[in-house]
Amino acid sequence: MKAKFSLFLMLFLSVAAFSLAAKNDDNIAVVAIPFLGGHTIYKYPTIEFMWGAGKANTHSDLLSQEFLNNGLMDFRVGFTTKKINLANFRNSDIIDVSFNYLFLSRFSKDYMLGDLASQGKVEFDGWKFGATHSRGLAYKFNENSDLLLYNSKGIVWMDPNFSSDSIGDQLAELKNRFGDAIRFGNCFEAGVKYQIIAPLAIDIAYERTVLYPRHLFWYWTASEMIEAAGHGLVNCFVYQVAKSSPFAAPVVNFLLQNIVSYAAFELRKSKMNWPFDTSMPILTDSYKIGISTAF
């Protein structure tokens, strides 16, 4: 496992080095938008690799057994967009950054370093794939370096697998609900990304995924709209903060957006499409570090 991880990391750093050597102004799309305050848009193709540890959990009424700790590997490819010279910021050192990407991830105990005691615990693993929109405000240090505080939200599909040396009625029912099919879910991530020097950046993040036993489209849509309303209120508040205290805006935005996301996902722990009376989902909580390169 260590050898595979080292090989992948060496390959990633080689790609990043090539990107750094090849990077020039022709690789950047710059668009002036006069009617939006004259801000400028920079767009970069981006790849990112993340590695970390996590654990599944669910409501105790659904399963009282403890889940085994897992490792994870996450590969992402998408586009990073940076907006500078924002009209609502008196401080030009604050920039708006978004990252729209597709991802492929593996959640498994095989990626954990060292031996794990698994007696009586439930092993939960599987492949995940999906699409995510990440956005936040960043402190710009110079032309090649910035510090981003972000919140992301996405949709995910996963093929979950369960195993244990002690299979009771609860686990058998859980496997019946979630097993033998690809399940739909949602994810959110709170993270800090530091671009050391263009195009290399390092990332530290917390992610929560909620996986549904079935997809109830209208209930899901209504629940998502309630959460979106919360994020919309935060956007309005942060806009006012940006006008009066622009240096505080990235931190305020990071805290409030992720509080809304965490609260929404916590409420869905007992009702997957809160506030509607629906089934209990499975959740995974993960802590990750990563490295990315923009072309």
Could you walk me through the main structural features you see in this protein, from its secondary elements to its overall organization?
With 295 residues, this protein is α+β, with helices and mostly antiparallel strands. It has a single domain (2-294), classed as Porin, CATH 2.40.160. Helices cover 26% and strands 45% of the residues. Strands 2-3-4-5-6-8-9-10 form an eight-stranded antiparallel barrel. The radius of gyration is 21 Å and the shape is globular.
List the helices and strands and how they pair.
Blueprint lengths: L1 H21 L6 E5 L5 E20 L11 E15 L9 E15 L14 E20 L2 E14 L2 E3 L5 H10 L4 E15 L2 E12 L5 H28 L4 H19 L14 E13 L1
Antiparallel strand pairs: 1-2, 2-3, 2-10, 3-4, 4-5, 5-6, 5-7, 6-8, 8-9, 9-10
Using only C-alpha atoms, the radius of gyration works out to 21 Å
Order of helices and strands: HEEEEEEEHEEHHE
- Total helices: the number is 4
Large-scale geometry: globular
**Average residue-wise pLDDT:** 84
CATH hierarchy, class: Mainly Beta
> Pairing-aware structural class of the strands and helices?
alpha+beta
Q: Work out the count of structural domains.
A: 1
Helix content: 25-40%
- Look up the CATH topology: Porin
Straight-line distance between termini: 29 Å
What is the CATH-assigned architecture? Beta Barrel
Largest β sheet strand count, sense and barrel closure? 8 strands, antiparallel, barrel
Proportion of β residues? 35-45%
